[in-house]
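Sequence, structure tokens passed on for absentees:
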Amino acid sequence: MRMTKGLALAAVFAAAISVTAVQAAPYQAPRNGFGQPDLQGVWTNASLTSLQRPAMFKSLTLTDAEAAALEKRRAAARAQQDKPTDPNSGAPPAAADPGGYNASWTDPGVSLGRIDGQVRTSWIVDPVDGRLPYTTAGHAAYIAALSKARNSWDGPENRPLGERCILGFGSTAGPPMLNVLYNNNYQIVQSKDAVVILVEMNHDARIIRLTDKKHLPNFMRPWMGDSIGWWDGDTLVVETTNFNPGESLRPYFDNSILLSPGAKVTERFTRVSPTQILYRFQVDDPATYSQVWKAEMPFNAAKGPVYEYACHEGNYALPGILAGARKAEKEGRKIEAVDVSGR
């Protein structure tokens, strides 16, 4: 009888160990037909978290209670912005900002980003203050480029790429791929020799070659740079160089960045669950930054499909922008410059 009880206890103990081992086993990404980790699907990086850490936060993470309170405040503000315009309010005063989109047209996300169950206050993890480590010259170049984009009305060449429908606003096209006000969806498609990332914003498609070990010649500088990739275990590593000088400035509030044409961006895509890809990247650009800076964000599974973002270089809003400037000139009015020194 004692032996029977002992065997029973041993069996229970062994079963407990087995269950614990299964629970502790790391997630293994499914394989595609080529035996590669399968990253395919539609993903989104929509989030209330931004690249740089706002001054209101003093650390990389928040408690769940702190996050819930902030998300509740953001939801209330969004609900206020989404209210119908009063049809009896009349036209806004002359020269006043009439406002932009109603909030129903935007999709910035409803929650802060979470990685390993921790709420993040910024995507940047190094430097530890969560801010871009500009050199003095790099920051001056950023301010000059931003001022030109905000205050130049002579022709389309000086307007931001998003207005011209060449690349998405901010750095949505990447690399690195950053979240903005809306259209934060991406579709990943894999073949044996390439990975394609379709960017919803401006329907950009970045092709990552898996067969090349060398980048294009230095004089070849496509939009979104030249990306080559390889597999490091279950992680897709992508190295991008040869950036086009025309995309150096990528303005979008605290997700704005400036990359020199000589920058190198290294990305790592690791599927960590059925519904999430951990996206990590580092930027090596000594012409602009005092150190290599690093960031990480979650890409969460989204319902597809990705619909066409029908923006093209014939964007009728751009002639309207330039026509407004010409009208102001004819009337002898000076367009007030936007001060960007605080950005």
Summary: The longest strand covers residues 264-273. Residues 42-71+104-301 form one domain.
